[in-house]
Specification:
By secondary structure, this protein is mostly beta strands. It contains no helices and 8 strands. A 6-stranded antiparallel beta sheet has the order 6-7-1-2-5-8, with no helix packed on it. The protein has a two-stranded antiparallel ribbon with strand order 3-4. It starts with 8 loop residues before the first strand and ends with a strand.
Length: about 100
């Protein structure tokens, strides 16, 4: 099944949380926080402005982004968990070196 986000929405999958701290300690499942980092799977066409024009989404498929702690809607399709975010919910794009 293919999902296509509408408007300025973004379809993303969470990046898995690290199992181990920098000092080498392993974290149990109960101690882990939900990651606030996600990889974009699909992007909608953009937001329709009051004058009828469409403002394209600045993000693209494959970007890794940071989003707000309580942002987005979680959905599960065919056993895969997705996160649907608005472009405004994205705080930053993670750029790799």
């Amino acid at each position: 099944m293919a999902l296509k986000p509408l408007g300025d929405r973004i379809l993303a999958t969470r990046v898995e949380a690290q199992e181990k701290t920098k000092s080498g300690l392993y974290l149990p499942e109960t101690a882990k926080e939900k990651p606030q980092e996600a990889k974009i799977v699909a992007v909608g066409p953009g937001k329709t402005l009051d004058d009828g024009t469409v403002k394209a989404v600045e993000l693209k498929k494959g970007d890794t982004v940071l989003y707000g702690k309580y942002a987005g809607t979680e959905v599960s399709i065919d056993g895969t968990d997705f996160l649907i975010l608005r472009e405004d919910d994205v705080l930053a794009v993670v750029e790799s070196k």
